[in-house]
Please model this.
Amino acid sequence: MLLSSSPSTSSLHIRRKSFDDGNFHSSSSEPMLAASPSRRGRLSSFDEVVHLTNAYPHHHMRPSNLPPMPEKETFKAEEKKNEEFDDAIWDKTRIWEWYNNLPWLAGMNYLPRTAVNFVEMWDESSFDPDVIAQELGWASEKLGYNTLRTNIPMCLYEHDAEGLTKRINKFLRIAARNGFVVMLCPLDDCEFSGEQAQPGPQPEPIPGLHNSRAIGSPGRRIVLDPSHWYRVEEYVRYMVRTWGQDRRILLWDLYNEPGNPWIFRTTGTELCENTEQFEKNALLLMEKVFHWAREENPSQPLTTSAWHMPDPFFEGDVVVPLAHAIDQRAMELSDVISIHAYCDPTCLQTTLMEISHFGKPMLLTEWMARQVKSTYETTLPTLKELKVGAYQWGLVRGKTQTHLPWPHVAKNYEGDPMWWHDILDADGSVHCEKEAEVIRSFAYPQSKAFSSDMFMDPEDSMLNLEAALEAAVQHAEHEGMVPINEGEEAVVPSVCSISMAAISSAMSHAGLDNTMLQQSGEPDGPSHSRHNSFGVPPNTFGSHMRTKSVEGLDLALGGIEF
Model:
């Protein structure tokens, strides 16, 4: 979600270094030089950025439910020069080889209609895989989309890392089944509600207010307090380490709109407190996040979106697109450039030309606001021609209420039935069929470019079987399956084992290739088996009965060969 800074905050102010007994003092205050259209390369003023002395405290009590800490010490702060943050950026040959092997990317930023914010999307109490599967099916079939971008709240990692991990994996399976590759975004400064994120049930939306309950990750309080950045490091490293080799993840958008200071009210749009310091810290945190992520050596490229664009509804606002220090640094550190631009096609084309000097592939990871002429008809032709990936904001009208304009824009369109974002209604119907036709004309040729076969390696039977078993749970009761506890002996008659037809149906439901199944014969008569957590060669399931724990339920399977 993009809102550009007000005139008073459109350039980041950086104080020169002056230390006395280890304490910071201001010797002068100067505005950081914005990158004019003629400027190229690194901003020299970044040499004056004060890197906060943020020695991470280790005396904090870590929640017992977090994954084990890395063996090596990773949370000691060090002063790092710009070059050290840049040391692992993909070179031009590598990034263009990666990008040129992709189809044109067309998709959306995704929250289900049942979620008021990303906590409600991912929290155990409200995660809804059925709705997600339905909506991603609509996006694929009705629009031809093949990719999506979604955010993960840090508060849920700290609250229940194991549960969050399972839900992310389930989401990735649903996305792959519907032909989507995913861009994950672990950090986000769009705390438009003005409230710190909390796990558990979320408040209802404020009537008539766009994105009224949006929360940040880790949240502005933590961005403003570097003594807590060790928590951010642990979270980012866990995310990238866990899914850094997962082919279902297309790339990482590490930090959504760093330094975004806006709060949405029914009376208009406000700035958060300590805006100047918040922007400074966001810049420094963004640099560190790139460094932490690169140290985990993911196979996917990294990006952070540049987002400070002119807003026609703010007089005297940003004049030069993406000239803010945060934007320039984000584009320098990113393997692939990603930007947010809710603007008319002329402004967009000019902006894309301006940033092309970086020589990197480009993605438009937020766009589409009808009242500012950021529309499918005016924008998609340019993006397709230039092979700039397109991720519109929103999909299905729902609890985020992003079909309504931003608060400071809404007064100009009171009573206007035109939606701001979103394209589908809650029943799956298309808001405007003409728009859908335009989308399909550009997106359909690439809509099936990513099939589930790309992500479900036939040689990786453990992954395949886990997904199949999870889907097979619903068949177990009908098939007379007897759940057993780990370590117990169980007598499982042949007639009570899950039949090949049930497994085949389950695999089909899970989006897996059920032609892999070969029946090697049902067990003869009653058979005994002890749960052994797949203590056999991973590709072999013969006539012996085996059991596998799926979210607490052990299923006995027999007569299956993968």
